[in-house]
């Protein structure tokens, strides 16, 4: 399907489920972006789940969002259980506004939902010449170090910085060995998952995505990864007023209430302490790129380059939507 | 040696090398703390290297430190090549002052040196009821993903938060499989290092600490760890005005100039968005601790608990200083 039609289809679907045009467009832009960067697990495959949650009244299609300015740098957003993209879009917007004005923007969002790719928001700040951290929590997927039950989400650490080129530095590293969306998509399409990324509910290694989803995902770097996931839960859940410590509901299986996910955006000017940031970051990247490479590596890339490459390549292509997912979306528009 | 005497010996040594009493005391407190938490690689074993650098005129024993207030939240410290502890101590102090006043403290430090344990500074903020990030760069130890030459330091991600108890949450995770200090100490004492943490200069796995020091350390989580190290280099080196991208000098081998390490402290109030932080964090920790445990695990601990336990146990004990290290320190006081 070409991109214009795909976007129209998403907007039409969300409006069919009660969203206004502006909110539906924000959501459509995020889903199309995920497809273009090749993160299909965060793209159109997700649309049905958002609509299901609206239907079950655990996502609010007509949110009354409250924005509370706490200081010139600090803002709190109560997203009133909107689709996650909408609260996150407001969160990063206000963090950018505050950072432009005072040097730092610090914005917490509560009563939000799954917002897609963290890098999508962080790079919005980088494109405006700002450095950004972006944190979100997520439903249980990873067991804390020492526990045999999942509690933390895949809670990414996401950081973006301008590079003086069109392609910002965007590190978007989930704390799990692979992201949960990839496992969900594999389950949906009947594919396998790699070895060493998940255990089944009995604690045995598995390559069956369904068993992985009911079992537990392995964190990166054992206890360090578990600590990072806990840190992200404190930052995005505990301090924002959102759910935390395993209380974020699974978007696919748990319709007993809204997810109440939390996000935290920390944005700042790169030139607070120096006058020549662009020169310095260019020099930094240049020195890394010039290092001798290991066999088989042609170029050393900074985080975000690969993704930008995929985006550019896909920008003038059709979006390949698996028939199963497309049929699901069509059926959302029939009722 | 009892702690009082160990502290006196450190202070005497630093004063012998030109530091004033206040600066010598700041350094002694940091080194004794490292011993008490069991991080011997960051304790008295380091004293000789600081003194050597002073002697070679690449650490300034009488720094003219400049503190520039950029906004009520933002401060820049030029540490004038003081011993790292001194610039870091000022950095976290000003971050705490700014956060108490405005909600957020954002402090960059340049022209600094190796400051010991990141957690030592982050927990100072947590003990004052604040949440803190603490970043520092370090001499080359890790190869960027795809490169076969080291460039990034072990660049820890460090985060602390109050818990409503005497023991804060303190995550201090270096991006290498093990910290470089442990490898240095093993080299000094003729011990081996674990399998899987380092390669020799030809890219072969090694358990010989000397070969590891001239080779490369492995990052956690392959490309994700490499990305984290790069992020920390941008945060603490590029934006603060310090050295970065492999230009931080090795404190033990390179006397061609000061290290010019950079640090970044981001400190904020945990109650910016909520009224009941203490209740929420207690609930968070309680839920994690209540999870079923894997076989052999008695208690689930949050980051920082183990360290606090070691500190408490060592608080009334003598400090065990290996004879080789003690003799080195004595010889520093003979000349």
Total beta-strand segments of chain A = 9
Rounded to the nearest angstrom, the distance between the terminal CA atoms of chain A is 22 Å
Using only CA atoms, what is the Rg of chain A?
20 Å
* Strand content range of chain A: 5-15%
- The low-confidence runs of chain A, each spanning 5 or more residues with pLDDT under 50, are none
Please count the helical segments of chain A: 11
Can you offer a commentary on this structure?
2 copies of one chain form a homodimer. Helices cover 40% and strands 14% of the residues of chain A. The radius of gyration of chain A is 20 Å and the shape is globular. Chain A is an alpha+beta fold. The mean pLDDT of chain A is 95. The longest helix of chain A has 19 residues, at 84-102. The first copy, chain A, has a 7-stranded mixed β-sheet with strand order 1-2-3-9-4-5-6, sandwiched between helices. Chain A has a two-stranded antiparallel ribbon with strand order 7-8. In chain A, helix 4 links the parallel strand 2 and strand 3. Chain A contains 11 helices and 9 strands. In chain A, helix 1 (3-16) crosses helix 2 and helix 4 packs parallel to helix 5. The first copy, chain A, has helices spanning 3-16, 21-36, 47-55, 84-102, 118-127, 180-189, 209-214, 222-238, 277-289, 305-314, 323-332; strands at residues 66-69, 74-78, 104-112, 131-136, 157-161, 169-173, 198-199, 216-217, 261-268.
